[in-house]
Amino acid sequence: MVNWFRFKFGITALVVQLFFILMFAWLVEYEHDYGNVEAPINGNHTSETGRLYPPFQDVHVMIYIGFGFLMTFLSRYGYTAVGINFFLASIAVQWAILVRGFTKYEVFKGDKYDAVAKELISLDFAAATVLISFGAVLGKTTPLQLLVMTLIEIVVAQINQLICTRFFSASDIGESMYIHAFGAYFGLAVSRVLYDKRVKDATKAKPVYHSDHFSMIGTIFLWLYWPSFNGGAASDDEQQRAYINTYLSLAACTVVTFALCAIYDENGKFKMEYIQNSTLAGGVAVGTTANMPLHPFGALIMGSVAAIISVTGYRFGSAFLADKLRIHDTCGVHNLHGMPALLAAIAGAVLAAMGSTEKWGQSYHQIFPHTAPISEGGKGWTNIQQGGYQMAALALTLGIAIFTGIITGFMMKLPIFDQDQIKDADDMFEDSVFWVLHEEEHLPMKHGGEQNGDKHKEMELRQRTTVGEHGIHL
Fold first, then answer.
1. CB within 10 Å: which end of the chain, N or C, has fewer?
2. Taking the domains of the chain in order of start, what are their residue ranges?
3. Helix or strand or coil: residue 191?
4. Residue-wise over 389-417: b if at least 16 C-beta within 10 A, else e?
5. Residues 54-65: pLDDT tens digits?
6. Which of 217, 219, 228 is CA-nearest to residue 58?
7. pTM of the model as a whole
8. How far apart, in Å, are the Cα atoms of 237 and each of 170, 248, 254, 412, 458?
9. What CATH number matches the domain at 12-37+51-421, 1.10.1200.10, 3.40.50.1980, 3.40.50.880, 1.10.3430.10?
10. Which residue has the higher pLDDT, 339 or 474?
11. HSE-CB of 373 using CA atoms within 13 angstroms
């Protein structure tokens, strides 16, 4: 008898991809000059692509290598961390083109989307939102559940960003609110709904020596390219400020993270979990203000405060979330993305309220277009009004993220999405549930040719001989 269950994920993924192909055929086209043989060669496109592609490629590396390898710290979940990260990002960028197009074009009147180079970095940004949420539920969900989460989250995240930018004119050049805050709290809301008390008995929710090495690869790639993440969408003076502010914030954050690691440990030692994650919090914390005249010393302060918030969160906050609120945050996205993003948003509101053309010159109107006089195409908002709208954007982002995350979590719990593939605590954080592992080839076979049903338990027994005295990585 055919086991149709094993085809469910594959068929669903193929149907989704077929849907994308049909929608692209109907709606997506090159920009007029790119695909029109009658149009003259436009040298401006070449120079524009030359300017846009380097930061896009940097962000591309962050999405597919940085995020993926950062999540390989789990001793038995490296395949899923990198592999499903690869899959979800590829789904997200295609879906994001379609969703973003619906917000910009009148498709039912015959408009087609223009596929242009400057949109590519925005697609990777959209994927980052999903991958942050993925970190909160890593090891406790099935690939089919994650596919569902991706399709829903891309839609609501893009709608949230549309509202905040169009109606609040909220500036967020590094998208700390629209990506990091949204992704973190959406993921935490999903994790709360999916909470399984058996996670306390999961023996594989921990790193080993070599898995932490792989995770640090992700950290270093993210750290190196974060200035492009915050500044890639900016231009001219704003881009220069974004690069400088982000770099300085990351450097200060790294120093303070190492210092606090030693202070918090009773033996004055460093903990790899903190180093892998909290050193990156400075990039998140300066995201909203990266293109603003924050000043170099201000960037150093932001990075230092971000490190304090993040390391303290890993030291005390993760256990509180798990024990008291029943939110199991596998990768600590609340500490790396959530709280530093709140800091970024508040700093952006404060700078908006304190800024003016007298202090910033025309940069103030360029960053906050609605503060320009009505005669110049703005709405004449005061600096205090702009600061208020920045905070309104944060509040709306949190509200939409948490509310839709809860709804998505309940949808993911439906039996049709294969939650029952994770049968017990031994199936959590275990690659062999979804992947063919090399160890399986050497395990004893039953007479019927079927591999031993306890294969991954046997592998775990062998694995435990190499696992040190690590605490659970929350």
1. N
2. 12-37+51-421
3. helix
4. bbbbbbebbbebbbebbeebbebbeeeeb
5. 999 999 999 999
6. 228
7. 0.90
8. 19, 17, 26, 45, 59
9. 1.10.3430.10
10. 339
11. 4
